Each structure stands twice: as C-alpha cells, then as structure tokens.
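As agreed, record copied across for absentees:
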Amino acid sequence: MESSGVIAASVIDGVLSTIDSRGMDRQTIAARVGINDEALLKAQHFLPLTTFTSILEIAAEEKSDPLLALSLGKVFKFDGLGTVARVFHTAPTLGEGIEKFVRYFPAVQSNTNSALGVENGLARFSYSIKDATIRHRVQDAVFTEMVFCSMLEATIGDGWRPPCIDFEHLPGEHLAIYQSHFACPVRFGRRENVIFFSARRLERPLDQHDFRLQARLETELGELIDGDDAGLDLITSIKAWITAALCRSASLDIEDAASDFGMSLRSFQRKLSECGVNYADIRNSVRMQIARSMLVSTSLPIPVISQYLGYSEPSAFCRSFKHLTGDTPVGYRQRRVI
C-alpha cells in the first residue's frame, strides 16, 4: 500500500493566513482538522495532504461559497510555496523555470503529478492529486490552478490570459463563474487539471535568474525529497482519512476506510493488528484530538462540537470524552482557555 500524500506545513500555514485575511475564522477552520498554530510550529516539515484539502473544503462550507478557492487562489502568493517557487525564479526562462518547478514539486507536496508538455504549439502545465484516499479535491484543484494562473500572468505580463483550462471535476451550476474568473474556455471532466498557453511563451526570460543560487536550491530540494519525513505511516494516514471524513460528515465505517486504502476489510484489519492497534481506537483518538482543538480554539457550543464529531447526541459525546480523557468537555475548556 502506497503511503498517503503530504504537504509542507508552511503551505498550510500560508493558506490559513490567506483565509484569515479574507475575514474568516482561521482558528475554527484549523480546529476542525485538529490543528492549531502551535501544532503548525511544531510540525517538522509536512502534514497530511488531506489536511490541506479539507481546510479548503471547510472554508468553502463556512463561507457558503462553493467556489471560494477561486478567490483564495487569486490572493495566495506563488512564493508562498517556498523553495520550490524560488527555484522557479532562478531559471533563465519560463520554460526552464516550470521544468524545475515540476521536478522539485514533490518537496512541497507528494502523491501528486505535475508536468509540463508541448503539443501542437501549445504548452500544457498539468496538476493532479494521485492519492486515492482523498475523495474531495475540487477546492484544491481550483485553488492550485488559480495560483498557477496568477504566476503565469505575473511572469508573462501584457494582460496574458490562458487560451484554455481543463479541470477533472464537473462545473455543477457554476460554469459561467468559472469562465468569468479565468476569462477563457474552461473544460470539465478531463483526465487532469491543465493550464494551456502558447509554447512560444516558454522562451520568455525570467528577470531573477541566478545559476549559482539555483544549484544551491536544487541541492536543498533534492535532499528534502530524499528525506525520511516526506511520507506518512499507515496509522497517521488513517487518522488523516478519518479527519477528512468528519469534515464532510461522511461515513467513518471501517469498510469505507479499507476500500479507500485499496484493501479488503480482512487485509486492512490484519495490517492494523500488525501495528498493534484497532480501528475503533484510532477513530476515538482522532475524535478526541479534534474535540480538544475545538474546545480550546473556538467558542462553539458543546452540542455543535458533538454533532460535528458524529455523535448521536451531546450526552454520548460527553460520556465518551470523559471516558477517554478523564475530564468533561466543559471542565477541559474551562481549564485550558485563559
């Protein structure tokens, strides 16, 4: 079984800051995926990719805006992707910059395909998550394509707009909004998310090119890709899957988890047994982690937290919290909130 994808914690922090700048409640959104600013600061380099996709989906839900990622991606800075953005800028041309970017993109985000190709005079800059455990990825696709479009627009200049954009998902009722935002034909239900542009643009010089800095950055990114922390073990992957399922009020049944991880129920249970854990304990651990985050970082009422965590009624949540933590939700909140 391939490990679940990861993303640089700095990118998650940047997106949460962008959400905050749009007048949304960063703390509540982060708490719903079981993280807070302290957790971000303590993160070595990476967090689960599904944490990132869930944050975007939650933000859209909180804002009641199914296309929120369009505006978030427009204001998020390409340089917020860190060293992989810097290595793009150090290249002599746009084409070489994108080639460097896609080569080292795994240093920022794993289990993802990103590529540059040329066909019939058109360059195609593609992006697609390949992590089968991530079901909901519309906001991620829209956000990412908007970030890439903004980067190309800033680099090419002259009022550039793409001649065409592809998305894996379907537009629903929002085709006109997509077309208005991108100001070009937009195709849906495609194999990958793709931005098309004239291949002639690939020769455009970049004004920050620096071969010496580029070599140093490439060494740094290569070491990061080869490092041991760019992956998740099975237990952490399952915890991330449960968190994402809670975010979309989906089933937490072990059968669904096994299916998304590409295993039969029996094989899945055997893997867990080999790790010395059972699924119910992992599920309870995730619920308590999110409960603690929501109790401390938000002022949401106990019944709202209970419902979000999938309990049938607040009393069931309170009993479970007391059993697993030795404290009541109210008591925990009172002692932790200063």
